Amino acid sequence: MFSSFAAFAQQAAPSLPLLFDARERLARPDLSSLVRLRFLTSVDFPPFNFTDQNGKLSGFNVDLAREICGELEISDKCQIQAMPFTDLKDALAASQGDAVIAGLAVTPELRRQFLFSRPYLMLPARFVRNLAAPLDGKTAAALSNHPVGVVKGTVHEAMLAAFFPALKAQAFDTKDALLAALKERKVDAAFADALQLSFWVSSLASDKCCALFDGPYLSEQFLGEGMTIMLRQKDSVLTSAIDHALAALSRNGRLQEIYLRYFPYGLY
C-alpha cells in the first residue's frame, strides 16, 4: 500500500489519491424532507477552516461543505456556522448543528456517540531532506547513514521507529527546533506531518534549503482514519447522503479541484 502511494506521488503529484473506488456507486438517499443542513466548523485550522482578510469563512472544509450541498441539490437548505473547536462536539450532540466538518480526529469514544462519513482526505507523513546533503538514491533507504530528525513524543517519532528501525533518529523537543536543525544541516532529513512540511518547504522560512523526499506514508494505526464528517447517531440517512456526495465529488474531479486550491504544492 505504501509503495503504491509513493509511486503515485512520483508520477502524478500534486494529485489527490482517490479514496473511493471509481466503480463504486453509493446510493443517494431521498432528502426531500430535509428542512436544512447545518455544517459546524471552526476558524482556527487553516487552510481547512479560517476567516480570510475580509472576515469571510473560508477553507478546504468550507468549500467542500458547499460542494456537498450542491451535489445533493440542497444548496438553498445549506448553512455553515463557525464556533470554537472545543464546542463542536457538544453543539452537535445538542442538535445545534447537523454535521461537524473541522478535522476532528475519530476516536473509539466518539464512534460510540456519533456517526462518521467515509474519509475524504488522508494526511500522510513525509520525509523532508536538506538539498545540500548528498543522498545516494531517491527512497528512504538513502537515509540509512544520515541523521533523521523527528519531534520527541509524537506519533511521527513512533511511526519512524516502526517503519524505519534502521534509520538514525534524532529527537527534538519542538517542531521549530527540528526545522531549524534541518535548515542548518544538523540533521540531513526530518520525518513529520506532510501538511506542515509542504507549507514550510515552499515558505520563505525554509530559504529554499529543503524539499519533500520519498513517501507519502499512511498508517491508520499512527495517523488515524483521515478527515471525515461527524454526524448524530440518528442521522444515518444523512450520513449515507454525504458519503454519496463525497464519492461523486471524488469521481468528477471537484474534490481534486478543492485540494489543489488549498494545497498547490501537494501533500503526496
From TrEMBL:
Q: Where in the cell is it found?
A: Periplasm
InterPro entries documented for this protein: Solute-binding_3/MltF_N
- Domain of life, per UniProt, equals Bacteria
The secretion signal range is none
GO cellular component, as recorded = periplasmic space
Query: Where the protein is mainly located, per its record?
Result: periplasm
Q: Does the keyword Signal apply?
A: yes
- Electron transport as a keyword of this entry, yes or no, is no
Task: Tell me what this protein is called.
Answer: Probable amino acid ABC transporter, substrate-binding protein
Q: Which organism is it from?
A: Rhizobium etli (strain ATCC 51251 / DSM 11541 / JCM 21823 / NBRC 15573 / CFN 42)
